[in-house]
Amino acid sequence: MSRSSRATRLALIGLALTVTLVGVLIASPPPAGEHDDIAGIPATTTTTSGITTTSTTTTSTTSTTTTTTTEPPYEGWVDPRSSGMPYGETVEGLLTFRGNPTRSYYGEGPVPTAPEIRWRFPDQAMCSNSSVGEQVINWCGTGWTGQPAIWERGEETWVAFGAYSRNVHVLDYETGERLLSDFRTGDIIKGSVTIDPDGFPLLYTGSRDNDYRVIAFDRDELTELWALNAFDVSPTRWNNDWDGAGLILDDFLFIGGENSQFHIVKLNRGYDPGGLVTVEPELVFNTPGWDDELLRDVGGNVSIESSVAISGNVVYFANSGGLIQGWD
Fold first, then answer.
1. Which domain holds residue 269?
2. Where on the phi/psi map is residue 99: left (φ > 0), alpha (ψ -120 to 50), or beta?
3. How far apart are CA 52 and CA 73, in angstroms?
4. Mean per-residue pLDDT for 155-183?
């Protein structure tokens, strides 16, 4: 199967899952073919966002002219010209909320005019209780965004998402069956997961139990390797949840939280002698997403519930006080 065919299939799967994964998967049958094996250990590949070199050849009956146009590598975090493109080239799929660092990759068409229900998951509602202040509420579904991640792993297509059931689920796209046992968190999961774009078998997700986690999926079960607690930084405001989907670029994790702080973590990803993925994370930057003037204007609800976006050397996010920010 060609790369474009696989990318189109994954995009269509992602669109269907985003619309229906509260309990139903809708997708067209995948085209026949083989998958590339991308499950091996990567060398030093890291995700950046750039434009590739192109070459054109013009031939006539009297002469042949070859013209090569070379674009210099982009010297920043994310090339703005990569807007609308997939999240790197190492892992094929829909890897984070709205697809890429600029949050602008929606997949590729055409969308089936007569989609079929292939399977349903689970066999009952995904619900659990969670407190809002003094009130206990029964939450059901897959959260604010509800977008799963879908990616090629070896010869399989995997689907992963968090839910109000307090679980991270990893499923087989073809059957809807669990590939790994559910990962249980201490409270509901409201945001979309992110799959590592550089081929490391890592999943990133947060929960209302305070923690934004790095979870390995190269073992017999989903395994937490590290977590950033919402109260590891100071000062904080509002809440302890993580609604946004993190971005991974050049071994750094970018994430905002309902603690009203923006964080950057150096992941230091690698592998142990047995071939299992490792991380040695270090929080290298954090800053409040508010100042005294904003608090005077809007009060204390200044949580960061958006998924941060990056274009050029600027990271963008909004908070609940209505302030859209760009940090260089």
1. 3-35+71-327
2. left
3. 8
4. 97
